[in-house]
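Check out a protein:
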Amino acid sequence: MGNVKALRIPFRLFYWTKGFAKLTRVYNLLFLALTQYFAAYFLVDVHYGQRAYLTDVRLFLLVFSTVCIAAAGYMINDYYDVKIDLINRPQRVVVGTTLKRRYVMVGHVALSMFGILIGFLLSWQIGVIHCGSVFLLWLYSNRLKRLPFIGNLIIAVLSGMAVALVGIYYREQEFLVFTYALFAFAISLLREIIKDMEDLPGDQTFGCRTLPVAWGIYRTKNLLYILSAIFIFLLFFLSGKLGNQTLITYFILLVVPITFFIVRLVRADTRRDFTLLNNFCKLLILSGIVSMVFF
């Protein structure tokens, strides 16, 4: 009997660890860390003969604190969205099943405070930004994500800020880093609106006033067309001001997948179509990270 109980302990730890990784979107967190490391290594440190920032403890702390706050954001989002996720993504529900609700809230608070503390150890600017990010993630999960567009805008701003933090902290190549931050903001905003179109059934059931619920799919698509055109213009404008041929070439090449995105969006009318577009936006962000290598 004692052996059976002893075997249950590592099994439960594995079960909880798996649930925590699922709750915090561990692959997204790794993606975030990779983005910040690439920005520091290939963009910020571009003028130096050796890539010193790759082994910089300050960079590790910056990335780690950002990852902590992002993980806390995923936790509080799922804490408030259990009922909606049971309709939209039942296979992803962890809160109340694998992990108890109070443990999720304690984890959210602990990770948030830890991320903020490290931020202030790095600089007061990073600490203040982390404080604002934690507050906005809570406000988004509790209220703003149920409102048209404003919730999408908040997440897009925070996505761009994750890239901008590297330029803000190191004070090197800020304009180049901020151009990439705008790219991250743009694709994230498109993706967040696409996700709302994908999650329409659950959002309608629980009275969330997202854009597809408030406007309908057709008008939401029209907004996406306009936003795509504005973002392409801004990216070309900024890369031209920067005078960087690599960046200009990348954005020219980006016209092809953006055109594919628009064509698929015009034809999209099922949840499967919107899931495909959601994943395609992830590939666009990945291509942006890869393009940093060529600087």
Q: What stands out?
A: The chain has 13 helices and no strands.
